[in-house]
Amino acid sequence: MPSRPARYAVIGNPIAHSRSPEIHAAFAAQTGQVIEYGRLLAPVDGFVAAVDAFRAEGGLGLNVTLPFKPEAFAYARRRTPRAEIAGAVNTLAFDGDDVLGDNTDGPGLVADVQGRVGLALKGARVLLLGAGGATRGVVRPLLDAGVERLAIANRTASRATALRDELAARLHPADAARLSAGGLADLDGGFDAIINATAAGLSGESPALPPGAWRGAMLAFDMVYGPKPTAFMQAARAAGVPRVEDGLGMLVGQAAESFALWRGVRPDVAPVYAALRERLAGPA
Ligand code: ATR
């Protein structure tokens, strides 16, 4: 009798919009892995119960999305160093009593920028907009990729400096020295890449950057994605930034990192990204 496929899912609230099931189904087909990957809607106060039930039924791993990443961090018994610094977990792997928590958002971003987009991060000067969870999740992987300078800029400058100080205390001093923080108003260009990790796009807005902020930028990258360019992407294009990208490649990249952690096989992201992009642009 054939054994039941290994079970995985993405957990969140809401979850209906998640693209993760189709991404992981494509990875599985490509690599010949037999898995089942579903969507798990948990009540906002019911994360632990939902994960316990999933494990009891034999589930082997979960991707975790809003609003549960901090709870997944607490749920994990062991965490990767990048998850520790992020203070958030987007990937859980179960093995009996063992629960490993990882955060693959940053590696997904780094892989997409250096791979598909083709910008080498080693020696690059990078501006990261925002001081919430999305920023926190990618700081360490960007530093690990060898950026010369990483500046966090936020609408509320004090939140950026507080985040900088908190992260710097947990980083190697040489890494902490490459990390700076401030407000948006003082930005005056000089960055190779500008990455939007704010929630401004949720209300159809772009962070209010002074015109000089874009000077010299080769890449503007929004962590969110959709069928249409975001307000941040439109602002970057209007400012003449030559390469403007959304977060679809980062989404596929973080999924590939999770898949590799669970299955020990690294999928090829390019065809999966291309198919997803086509579906996203197609008729609704
Ligand atoms: P998350 O954990 O998803 O990043 P968050 O902790 O609420 O969410 O952080 C949202 C980030 O987006 C913050 O950096 C926020 O700036 P403030 O700290 O000044 O609030 C930023 N943000 C949200 N809306 C914004 C807007 N319209 N313009 C600029 N920044 C915005």
Tell me what you see in this structure:
There is one protein chain. This protein has about 280 residues and is an alpha/beta fold. Helices cover about 40% and strands about 20% of the residues. It is built from twelve helices and twelve strands. A six-stranded mixed beta sheet has the order 2-1-3-5-6-4, with helices on both faces. Helix 1 links the parallel strand 1 and strand 2. It is globular, with a radius of gyration of 19 Å. The chain starts with 5 loop residues before the first strand and ends with a helix. About 45% of the residues are buried. Bound molecules: 2'-monophosphoadenosine-5'-diphosphate. The site of 2'-monophosphoadenosine-5'-diphosphate has 14 residues, from helix 6.
- Tally of DSSP helical segments: 12
> How many distinct beta strands?
12
Q: What would you call the structural class? A: alpha/beta
Largest sheet: 6 strands, mixed
Unreliable parts: none
Helix content: 25-40%
Distance between the ends: 41 Å
Task: Name the shape in a single word.
Answer: globular
SSE pattern: EHEHEHEHEEHEHHEHHEEEHEHH
